[in-house]
Amino acid sequence: MSGPTLFGLCAAVLIGLGLYGVITNPQPLRKILAFNLIGNGAFLLFGAIARRGAAAGFGGDPVPQGLLITGIVVAFSATALAIALLLRLFDESGSTTLAADQPAIAEADDRDPYQSAEKLGVLDELRARSESIEGTNGKTSEIF
Amino acid sequence: MTVTSALAMVLALILLAIAAYTVAARRTFAAIEGFVAYGLLLSIAWVALSSIDVALTEAAIGSGLTGVLLIGAAARLRTTEAALSAERPGAPLRWLAAAASAAVAGGIAVAVLSLPDPAPTLAPAAAEHLASTGLGNPVTAVLIAYRALDTLLESIVVVFALIGVWSLTPDRTWGGRPGPEHAADPNGILAYLARLLPPIGITVGLYIFWVGADLPGGKFQGATILAAMWLLVMMAGLTDAPPISRTWLRILLVAGPLLFIAIGFAGALTAGAVLAYPEGYAKLLIKVIEAALMPTLTLTLALLVAGASERTAPP
Amino acid sequence: MNDFLLAAAGFVLATIALGLARIVRGPTDADRMMSVQLIGSNGVAVLLLAGAAEGTPAAGDVALALALLAAFASVAFVKSATPPIPDSDKEPERA
Amino acid sequence: MSFFLDIFIVVTVSAGAFFFLAGSVGLLRFPDALSRLHALTKADNLGLGLIVLGLLPRAGGLLAALKLVVVWLLILLASATVSQMVARVARRGGSPS
Fold it and tell me: How many C-beta atoms lie closer than 10 Å to residue A112's C-beta?
């Protein structure tokens, strides 16, 4: 088996693995990780095709190689944006669940004072107050 | 030849094993540690595919910056992990997902095995026009001459991604410093590393940027290494990320793409087409564009890792 | 001679599989960090050996980049595994 | 001369590869984190060092040779600092799997 074919098949398996991770893992961060696997698989497939195009004394077709560099940088930017979204979601809701209905929170509502206070907006007010008192922020959520 | 293909085989198997681990690992931290090792091995795979330029990019971005980005996020989301693993789908759904994923992988594998022979290639065309750019590295020629529009749009996309990250800043910390504050231990081993490594790293980054015209390397790889050095100094607490409201920062962030656009449109007057370079000045202009993109890319990549602003700006 | 260097590269590559087993087995994050460090050094050696065997000195530049960033991810790991230095009393102790 | 040089390369590179094997086996077999760390540093320092030494005669020129040595020094630096930091994490017990 030649090198490009081998890595092409490797890329196919990587895409499959990533897809499985994206579907089955409930944690958004792990989904981002698995999505990166899919992206890497696609890049590797493209790289195998570039290697097949070796000619004119080059080790591979330089056009796909150039596009790959662009692709890797853009994939990194997208990952950074996705993680920023996730962290903001966590800061806002205290959870990163993607489930549409949140049974765990709904059931605990009448028992857990923290969740009830969160719902009533009491915590937001407390946060705002403690900020004005301490003059700090960003860390107030840890105090609660 | 047989030794080479055996080597490639071992490499591919290790890559797949570690990729499977990052999907299957129970703890997020363990998965990310696997992913960092995976990025290291992937850059060896790129060398095996004779794509040294891509290998350099992967080495710097794949395991370096992406790793640090994921680790930071995992550390902050650690408390959510236990609750979320309860939402894991049941066995039937997992089997269904496995079957679907296997079908997709199988389809791609069939496509790989039935790729046309001989393979279509643009390499001869790239080689033919290489002399007119004055460059020795065909990948750099693709990036900044033949397909300059892609690179221009990419440098803008990266800045847009940073604007997207910044726009996720809560109102109360708008304009402040990005990311959490890093504790400094001026006599610790980390501070020692952060003092010793950056001078070497900056030299290597500039070297990789400079040789990019003729050998594998270039602005993306160089800028990523510089960004990593800056982040290292930040993580050691020896310096802090600048508040995102600073004017100098914003000017530097748009300066590179703006100069690229200006030279591109000047090409319409001097060379007859947008993003074309006048005869004899191609290499000079390419180096000017790359040099202008360097600070923009370095700042953008580092600040993408640093994240949205979380602390109020100093007065 | 080139075949010998390639074989050596293959041998070092195979030892990566051993390091991989330590990543899978853990049991602590510290063990996994060590494995990542070992895989980084092994990878650098593979690149240098294969680059010398196949006459592609540019592989050395990739090795240089990997060596430079070898500690980068580990630093982030250690920082996130270590609680912040308790320099003031208003910082609550992490659970 | 070339014959002796070849022998030198074979011996040093083989020794380097052996230390990599020893380091990996140690990482896998040693009972606790700190002794595993001990195994790791052998691979980094001696294994890579010997391989770099073996490749030096084949380096194309002064710059290439310098690059090889710098790669080794960088790995040494990374290994030394990471080992110390990891040892601190390991001594506190790290975080369990």
Answer: 12
Query: Min CA distance, B28 vs chain D (Å)?
Result: 10
The per-residue pLDDT string of chain B (315 residues; one tens digit each, 9 = 90 and over) reads 567 788 888 899 999 999 999 998 888 888 998 999 999 999 999 988 888 889 999 988 887 899 899 988 888 888 777 777 777 778 888 899 899 999 999 999 998 888 877 777 777 777 777 777 777 788 887 887 778 888 888 889 999 999 999 988 888 888 788 877 777 777 788 888 888 899 999 999 999 888 887 787 788 889 999 999 999 998 888 888 888 888 888 898 888 889 988 888 888 888 778 778 887 787 888 888 888 889 999 999 999 998 888 877 655
Q: Do D28 and C22 touch (CB under 8 A)?
A: yes
Work out the minimum CA distance from B158 to partner chain A, whole angstroms.
6
DSSP helix/strand/coil, C36: helix
- Does one domain contain both A94 and A107? no
> Where does B59-207 show beta strands of DSSP type E?
177-178
Q: Is the pTM of this model over 0.90?
A: no
Cα D86 to the center of its chain, rounded Å: 17
Angle between helix axes D48-55 and C29-54 (nearest 10 degrees) is 10
Domain identity same for A20 and A57: yes
What radius of gyration do chain D's Cα atoms show?
16
CB contact under 8 A, B33 and C10: no
Domain, as residue range, for A12: 1-98
B199's CB contacts (< 8 A; 6+ apart) are: none
First-residue to last-residue Cα distance in chain D? 55
Helix (H/G/I), strand (E/B), else coil: C93:
coil
DSSP letter string over D45-79? IIIHHHHHHHHGGG-SSHHHHHHHHHHHHHHHHHH
In b/e form, how buried is each residue of B90-128, taking b as 16+ CB within 10 angstroms?
A: eeeeeeebeeebeebbeebbeebeeeeeebebbbeebbe
Which of A13-17, A54-58, C35-39, D14-18: highest mean pLDDT? A13-17
Instruction: For D33, name the nearest residue in chain C, comparing CA atoms only.
Output: C31
Assign residue A83 the CATH number of its domain: 1.10.287.3510
Task: Give the pLDDT confidence score for residue A125 in this predicted structure.
Answer: 59
Let me know if B286 is exposed, middle or buried by CB neighbors in 10 A (0-12, 13-18, 19+). Answer: buried
Enter the tokens of residue A60: 């591979």
Are residue A82 and residue A114 in the same domain, yes or no? no
Mutation to test the C interface, candidates D19, D74, D91, most C Cβ within 10 Å: D74
Name the domain count of chain A. Answer: 2
Chain D contact present for C75, CB below 8 A: yes
Judge whether D17 is closer than 8 Å to chain C, CB to CB. yes
Model confidence at A127, pLDDT cuts 50, 70, 90, reads low
Residues A87 and A36 in one domain: yes
One-letter amino acid at D35 equals S
pLDDT digits (tens, 9 = 90+) for A36-69: 999 999 999 998 888 887 776 777 788 888 889 9
List beta partners, residue B309: B178
The reply to whether omega before C27 is within 30° of 0 (cis) is yes
A14 plus A85 within the same structural domain: yes
